[in-house]
């Protein structure tokens, strides 16, 4: 009764046959050495207890979900540790799939957990049969087939013809698309962001761009031509922020490429235009009073030659004059 509280994890596995005799593990901490684990009131056999782990064999049980409890003479009441599902020989159940999403090309290794799987069972993802299916009574592994972007059903079919489905349990993610790039300005007084519609940037910028599109996922990369962005911030599946490279090796129009962590890429051709170095065309007037205050107009050349090619050149917002 004076023992400290403890934390328990869910039992592993959480599915087994009504005959019992399957190894089960409960992870946690501060388990009392005299702990007793029961499933539907029946104790585990061959149970071993450490401070962080309880193992044993499941007792025979009734078909369906049954409570897993940890009791001990040291406490007034038991601790609920989760559910265990007893299956009859004819039952099949699906409890999960890993991973839950992937690229439309497929090719990743998938795993379905559950129970009642029979040798020779088949797996389909969105009505497309998976390859390299390996079956155990509680786990099926397979190679995920290619598919179409969106959520699809997972189906397992045993040799006796009985099937079970996890509805919309897997998501195919297509390549990202980029439909707009804007130069992000400083946050305004209301906390929002304004953006210019023309992605014209000087040669050595530290500017931040907002990239609008679809299908972005966590930890993407962004390239401007052959140069990677110095920093990419994932905002949502439809928005990224990217800090431009410090140095460009060329000027003029550049493709912008966003690549997701799954290797799929989206390209916006000529997505930004790197401006050539400014070339001053005229300054008027060229003289003024010592006290200052004279208004002057500076005009730059509209194009500049770079590596034997003519590119646009112009002033950008926040240009400074010294």
UniProtKB/TrEMBL annotation:
Transmembrane segments: none
Record-annotated IPT/TIG domain positions: 12-78, 94-162, 207-266
Keywords: Signal
InterPro entries referenced in this protein's UniProt entry, alphabetically: Fibrocystin (IPR052387), Ig-like_fold (IPR013783), Ig_E-set (IPR014756), IPT_dom (IPR002909)
SUPFAM superfamilies associated with the record: E set domains
Keyword Signal among UniProt keywords: yes
Protein name from the UniProt record: IPT/TIG domain-containing protein
């Amino acid at each position: 009764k004076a023992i400290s509280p403890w934390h328990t994890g869910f039992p592993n596995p959480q599915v087994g046959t009504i005959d019992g005799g399957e190894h089960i593990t409960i992870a946690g901490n501060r388990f009392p050495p005299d702990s007793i684990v029961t499933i539907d009131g029946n104790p585990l056999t061959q149970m071993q207890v450490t401070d962080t782990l309880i193992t044993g064999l499941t007792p025979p049980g009734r078909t369906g979900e049954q409570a897993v409890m940890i009791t001990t003479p040291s406490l007034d009441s038991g601790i609920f540790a989760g559910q265990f599902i007893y299956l009859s020989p004819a039952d099949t159940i699906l409890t999960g799939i890993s991973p839950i999403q992937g690229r439309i090309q497929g090719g990743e290794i998938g795993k379905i957990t559950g129970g009642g799987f029979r040798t020779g069972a088949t797996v389909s993802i969105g009505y497309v049969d998976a390859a390299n299916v390996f079956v155990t009574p509680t786990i099926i592994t397979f190679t995920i087939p290619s598919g179409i972007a969106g959520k699809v059903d997972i189906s397992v079919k045993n040799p006796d013809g009985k099937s079970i489905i996890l509805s919309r349990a897997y998501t195919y993610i297509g390549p990202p698309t980029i439909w707009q790039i804007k130069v992000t300005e400083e946050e305004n007084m209301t906390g929002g962001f304004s953006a210019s519609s023309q992605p014209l940037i000087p040669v050595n910028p530290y500017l931040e761009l907002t990239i609008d599109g679809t299908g972005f996922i966590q930890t993407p990369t962004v390239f401007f031509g052959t140069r990677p962005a110095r920093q990419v911030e994932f905002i949502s599946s439809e928005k990224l922020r990217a800090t431009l490279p410090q140095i460009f090796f060329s000027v003029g129009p550049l493709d912008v490429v966003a690549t997701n962590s799954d290797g799929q890429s989206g390209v916006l051709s000529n997505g930004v235009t790197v401006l050539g170095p400014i070339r001053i065309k005229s300054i008027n007037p060229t003289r003024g009073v010592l006290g200052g205050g004279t208004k002057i107009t500076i005009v730059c050349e509209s194009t500049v030659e770079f590596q034997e090619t003519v590119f646009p050149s112009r002033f950008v917002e926040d240009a400074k004059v010294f």
